[in-house]
């Protein structure tokens, strides 16, 4: 087996994922990949995030075969509907109205690639989120505090959660975009030490 990698790259431009990895105390560099992601959800939310995470990680891993690369993707799903990022505020409002008073699932896939070591390891974490009943005034209040346009499902859990979220079952960080508990366990099981 090759010597353990000395570099750890996050193949994502997401400030939330970088923030969560910093919170974990990991040493890493941000190296976004510009790949064509599939947001259709035609094969279901779990397969969609798995394939997108693998695409990000494998693309960068080909360029940096000696490094450990992390690719990740998150989506919000209710019933059979995959809720990607809204196209405009009207679309964002429609999404929040759809989720109002209901429980939906957030899926995040994490893909770890290390080409020189022959590693391609991917897993999916899911969290269930229950929304409060949201009327138009509450949605307006939320939009005044949070930009919904850059978030799957038109919401984030970092700020304003008390306005819309009743309960989260599972990892809250998973809803933010990276299940740090499962990631830490996986990195330790695989024998990687990138902690400061």
UniProtKB/TrEMBL annotation:
The active site is at residue 73. It comes from Thalassobacterium maritimum. Its cofactor is a divalent metal cation. HAMAP family: Maf (MF_00528). Keywords: Cytoplasm, Hydrolase, Nucleotide metabolism. Gene3D superfamilies: 3.90.950.10. This is dTTP/UTP pyrophosphatase. InterPro entries: ITPase-like_fam, Maf-like. It is found in: Cytoplasm. Its EC number is 3.6.1.9. One of its GO terms (molecular function) is hydrolase activity. It comes from the Bacteria. It catalyses: dTTP + H2O = dTMP + diphosphate + H(+); UTP + H2O = UMP + diphosphate + H(+).
């Amino acid at each position: 087996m090759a010597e353990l990698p000395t570099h750890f790259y996050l193949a994502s431009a997401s400030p939330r994922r970088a923030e969560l990895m910093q919170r974990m105390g990991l040493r890493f560099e941000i190296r976004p990949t510009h790949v064509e992601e599939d947001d259709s959800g035609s094969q279901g939310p779990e397969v969609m995030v798995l394939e997108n995470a693998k695409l990000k990680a494998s693309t960068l891993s080909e360029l940096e075969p000696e490094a450990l690369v992390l690719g990740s993707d998150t989506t919000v799903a209710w019933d059979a509907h995959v809720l990607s990022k809204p196209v405009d505020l009207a679309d964002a409002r429609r999404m929040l109205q759809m989720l109002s008073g209901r429980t939906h699932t957030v899926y995040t896939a994490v893909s770890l690639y290390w080409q020189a070591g022959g590693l391609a390891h991917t897993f999916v974490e899911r969290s269930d989120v229950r929304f409060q009943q949201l009327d138009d005034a509450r949605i307006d209040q939320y939009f005044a505090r949070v930009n919904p346009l850059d978030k799957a499902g038109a919401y984030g859990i970092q700020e304003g959660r008390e306005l819309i979220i009743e309960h989260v079952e599972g990892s809250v960080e998973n809803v933010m975009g990276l299940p740090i508990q499962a990631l830490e366990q996986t990195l330790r099981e695989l024998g990687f030490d990138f902690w400061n």
